[in-house]
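Good morning C.,

I know you're traveling, so I'll keep this short. The sequence:
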Amino acid sequence: MFWVGVLCDAKVAAAREALRPGRVPGMAESQAQVVHDGVEYDMVVDTADTSPEECAAMIVSAMSSQA
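The tokens, ready to paste straight into the viewer:
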């Protein structure tokens, strides 16, 4: 099993949340860190600074190096 933490700044999460219909305002920012508390990841990617494609490439590379 390979655990990947997908993070972004709470303010970025809140801005993304505001663009999506049906979201509860404030939930993304309030949960931005707490959902990761106590979890040990094999790697972490930050989607605030890195594109989805770059994150995917980083994950594939990290998984390949552990194989």
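Safe travels,
E.
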